[in-house]
Predict the 3D structure of the following.
Amino acid sequence: MQKYILVFLAAALLTGCPAQPPKDDSGSTANAGKKPGSTDSVQTGKLDGADNTQGSAFNAGDEPYRKDAIKDASSPLSQQVIYFDFNSSSIKSEYRDLITWHGRYLASNPDMKVRLEGHTDERGSREYNIALGDRRAQAVSRILMFQGANKKQVEVISYGEEKPVELEHTEAAWNKNRRVQLVYEAM
Amino acid sequence: MKQVLIIASLLLFGWSLSAQAVLDVEITQGTEDALPIAIVPFNWASVEKKPDMKWSEVISSDLLRSGRFAPIAEKDLLSRPQNSENIDFNTWRVGGVDHLVVGSIRPAGLNQYTVQFQLFDVFKGEQLLGYSLTANLSSIRRTAHHISDLIYQQLTGQKGAFNTKVAYVSVTRSLGVASYKLEVSDADGFNSITILTSTQPIMSPSWSPDGTQLAYVSFENKRAQIYTQVLSSEQRVRVSGFKGLNGAPVWSPDGKKLAMTLSKDGNPDIYVLNLQSKKLQRMTKHWGIDTEPSWMPNSETLVFTSNRSGKPQLYKMDKAGQRPQRLTFDGDYNTSPEISKDGLKMAFVFKDKSGFKIASMDFETGIIDILTEGPLDESPSFAPNGSMILYAEGQRAALAAVSFDGRFKQRLVAKEGEVREPTWSPFLK
């Protein structure tokens, strides 16, 4: 799935219109989602066919922003964690499209809401990290709103370093802990 | 305060006889110039059953933990005089012992005792201190700590901080579910009481200056909110539950105000809540992060962390919150300021290439001392007499303490789970 999204994002960048919503496309690349095991063969096809690429993450006949897309492993909207650099709340370029699509998803589904949970790694002081987690979640929130999400649909909460996903004291664990998690709920 | 102690005593009463330390103290770095002192086991002057606490052990352990003394192990004592008449000062002089403490305890009514002790200067052969104290069964450890305080003050000239408490947060994890507890124990890790248990994070305990209340952050309503809680009655009040962040509560030294971080107006900024009028005053207004306020002794000026320069650094504001003056220029990460009670020093978290360490700054000279080795040290808190700084070692999920000059170090390891965010109480009445 991870690999697949990277391909999808790369493809989106190639088309030169990254903020475009993923189109519903019943083209040849649609089966990529149905056969996650066959991603290797699908990759080249997607990168070649620029016009079709953006719909590639969706199953044939599906609406890209249909309500349950966030639970569909084949939709990029199922990717709901954004990672950050140490002591930074800047959105890394590889996540801009993903957050944009989440913003459009919310705009398309006004009865859905999302809780943005900001987290940091364990390094440094706890209250500063709470503020940093807040800044990270706010940075994601701004893009969601810009894409048409309503203020009432977006809740921001920072846990700082209090809720790590990995408990080890290693770079690898810290990389996974510096994150904003998008937690969707029906209104 | 008296009332609090009485109630706390009642809470402890049932099990104080077998009080267990929840934190084990291990000395990790000693000093060579610690003063040799002998505490002779106190004589029990009665046929009745004696209370299950070794006075000499509690006092020796206190003095050892201060880093200023090297108490002689009980097995190495040259003799065991029970009163001044039995002391042969020559023996102790030859043994290289500078000071000697002898004492006795006898029953004085139901669950009450009279404790007498004397402190001697071995070389002069003179008594320096002599006291007779009344102790309740439920608070005999406190009386022992009080004796340690008297000895410490006599020999160092500085007020002792043994009869104090420490608040900290503990976390235990079971099958991926965390249990957070706000604990208060004696400064030596004994007599721990859980004052709050939650499945959601608890953070940033801060003592009221009279030692009767704690302010803290609890996520129990799924978001950070600030509470104050009276330790004796469990009575708690939610003092801040604004939209966004509610964090970093710190009681002003005069007890009238609570400084805190709120993001209700968009960014994390520092506010001061007047606890009487409930009036909220905004102290900083900046697009960056402003947090971790710490009071100067005047209860007017605040030091705080801000990333307004791009990286977190420490700043000092004037009374109105105007013209913040930058205090730290070394390194690209300085956070978590904690001002000593006398306002002369500041402890903080400093990052260099080998990690996050506890550092101190002398305000007069501006000199910074790096006191610990890291790599994940945080949450510095001064002892009320300024002699030690308590902090958390993130790498071990343990608490540790370092003397203000960095020469003496000890670790306080929890029997189970992680411990963090230690906060030393003020002097208790």
Summary: Chain B touches chain A through 35 residues (CB under 8 Å). Residues 31-156 of chain B form a domain with the Rossmann fold fold (CATH 3.40.50.10070).
